[in-house]
Amino acid sequence: MNIPDAETLCTTLVEQMRPHVSPRTVLVGIHTGGVWLAERLQQALGLEQPPGSIDISFYRDDFGSRGLQGKPKRTDIRFTMEGAEIVIVDDVLYTGRTTRAALNELFDFGRPARVDLAVLVDRGGRELPIAARYCAHTLPQPLPASQILELRKDEAGTLTLRLIDA
Amino acid sequence: MRNPQLDKNGELQHLLTLDGLPRDILTTILDTASPFTEVAEREVKKLPLLRGKSIFNLFFENSTRTRTTFEIAAKRLSADVVNLNVSTSSTAKGETLLDTVDNLCAMQADMFVVRHAASGAPFLITEHLFANGRNDIHVINAGDGRHAHPTQGLLDMYTIRHFKEDFTRLTVAIIGDVLHSRVARSQISALTTLGVPEVRVIGPKTLLPTDVEKMGVRVFHDMKAGLKDVDVVMMLRLQNERMNGALLPTAQEFYKMWGLTAEKLALAKPDAIVMHPGPMNRGVEIDSAVADGAQAVILPQVTFGIAVRMAVMSMLAS
């Protein structure tokens, strides 16, 4: 399996989004990879509003069986959700459950006018009817559940994708 | 001996006391509470974590603030909350504590929040649940006798960390009626576990437990000496309802000796914070001008209490 270069995918994503975003667009990154990506996209797209960030730990659908995983981070939404044009940003799209949790959380802040989804990689394996409007790369074959594809950021701020065993 | 608070994997199963809880569990609770504080700023102040869970507030002793903040915490986590005012219910008709618990278990309770005038009552309930194999039901001690009030201790630690950040550089003074105070015991346990180098207790001999030094604190019977250069001033409520006999002269006399006034507070560090677990006796243990002053963080304590209780409930339900 060839792991694509995250920096190249970032550029691809920016070009996909550029014709469709307006000055009113607000990005919301999902912790942790999505937050890095959202910061990158906001600068590249020249959006005024700094990106929001959400940690979906409290909205997971497997809390009952798995409990809290790790230490949840703060959700940080500083704009008015009512009528906002949102793009949820995440690094990897997999089952779609994280996106569902993020949508539920967003709507607890108000009623946005529109919500889109932007991801770096679609790894397949969807379990919910969710699709990304912006997606820089779709893997030709879905990854097996035993593998985790994750985004990392080094000290210089360079993004890389890593494939690790679960 | 089995620690009744922890399960076999060392995870928090019940919260009964802060005494003997490892530092990393205390820190995890404080860290988990932090994102919950943000929920209060949302349009919908609710998270779906405890959806479908039933939480019973079992208050065998009166309380307004603690019961209310537990109720708000549970409701913000989407749990169903039932408040039992036990003093006016079955107990008054002769039902025992454990019979009450068994009946609520039969109603599919998931969690009990217990306040009781007798030290050890929540512990008795956890042992009863354990003996019956009900490891799926969790107990939170909301104050038992003179023993412990762990969520108050935790919200105090959250408040201190919020304003002072690093526990390991602080001098903290706990002032007043330590003898009757379950709050003071929980505070001392938590402060020492979290690495506060100097914890002082200040009060008259009659209102300090005889063996208080064994808890790792410095004792002062002179308020002015005790307040010198402290970072955190934690006042306690004078618990008139628990006193019998001649433990102190009059409230006025107590105020003169041990009441926190602006003049005495000036001996602490200029940026010292003033805390009080409530309810306050203004003009007895604290002067109104101090209670409402710039250094008081008494109302933030209440607000943080909700987030801390949300954190404890969601960690137990995990």
How is the topology of this model organized?
The complex is a heterodimer of chains A (166) and B (318).
Chain A: H1 6-17, E1 25-30, H2 33-45, E2 52-54, H3 63-66, E3 85-93, H4 97-107, E4 114-122, E5 134-138, E6 147-153, E7 159-165
Parallel strand pairs in A: 1-2, 1-3, 3-4, 4-5
Antiparallel strand pairs in A: 6-7
Helix pairs in contact in A: 1-2
Chain B: H1 23-37, E1 54-59, H2 65-76, E2 80-85, H3 97-105, E3 111-116, H4 121-131, E4 138-144, H5 150-164, E5 171-175, H6 182-193, E6 198-202, E7 218-220, H7 223-227, E8 232-235, H8 251-258, H9 262-265, E9 273-275, H10 288-291, H11 298-317
Helix pairs in contact in B: 1-5, 1-11, 2-11, 5-6, 5-11
Overview of the molecule:
The complex is a heterodimer of chains A (about 170) and B (about 325). Chain A is built from four helices and seven strands. Chain A is about 25% helix and about 30% strand. With about 325 residues, chain B is an alpha/beta fold. Chain B has eleven helices and nine strands. In chain B, helix 2 (about 65-75) links the parallel strand 1 (about 55-60) and strand 2 (about 80-85). In chain B, helix 1 (about 25-35) packs across helix 11 and helix 5 (about 150-165) crosses helix 6. Chain B starts with about 20 loop residues before the first helix and ends with a helix. The interface of A and B includes residues 73 and 76 of A.
